[in-house]
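As described in the Methods, two query proteins were run sequentially through the folding procedure within a single session, without resetting any intermediate state between them. The first query and its resulting structure tokens are shown here.
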Amino acid sequence: MLNRTIYNPLAKDKVTFLETEEDTGGAYELVEVELAPGGGVSLHYHTSLVEEFEPITGPLGIELDSKRLQVFPGQIAVAPVNSLHRFYNPSQTETILFKVYIRPARNFEKTLRIAYGLVNDGKVNRKGIPKSIWHMALLFHYGESYLPGIPLFLQKRVFGFLAFLATKLGKDKALEKYWVGERINGSDHFQKMAINNTPLL
């Protein structure tokens, strides 16, 4: 069975899936994040997801559309659709804990499990970007997450087309081990069925 907790040594965070897409019928995903001193992620934005950050211990650092915020327990920070954002631990000595609601769930769990799996297998660069162009395209496509500084339409066209080719070439099969369940009695059937990942052009 899939472990509810995953770890990313680059971002220095440990993520526990408290409520998954399967649990909520796709309405949302709820995760708890344990973030080491100085840990965090780079700036990005989502075209279909809203994220709500709720510190348990803190403060939690949030950069949101060029504003730097410190969010304390009892407060909530919201990153709307298309907002450029990142989270980080401003402390250099204390580990912090916070919850994140992702609405709707979309492919969040699938994307995160693949991304963390690639990191732990040494298949990414120092910024966490997959070394394989096929894996990079599939990951960006699944997550509907994009980078600043490159026009959105261009990222969608390029990553969408490359993800389509990657699927046709079977490159997505190498990623299945990160997000599907154990094989049943060694057969080719999975305990957890795949989320629809038909690429959009």
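Immediately afterward, the second query was submitted; its sequence and tokens are:
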Amino acid sequence: MTENNTVETSESSSCCGSCGTSEASSDQATPAVREIFHVQGMTCGHCVTAVTTELSKVDGVKAVAVDLGTGQVTVDSDKQLPDADVSAAIDEAGYELTGRVAV
């Protein structure tokens, strides 16, 4: 329980706040849009790399996280991504976009 409190504290506050770098980093790291897609056919680390690489090429994408167990791909971006762009990237990686997950 003490470990959880330590983690929460370090994530929610800066070291001293005098330099302002922690605040600026937090603001820049926050995506404008988080979308979750369901992708069929991913089974291994190579799949994760292929999907991540192709989605990262889509304009505005800042981060991609793949959950092999659920087939869900979380994408953080500057703006909502066009379905056609996401579908094309996943197709290029060799997999099938089967839908969006409600966030």
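The two ends are 29 Å apart (CA to CA). We note this only descriptively and draw no conclusion about the first query from it.
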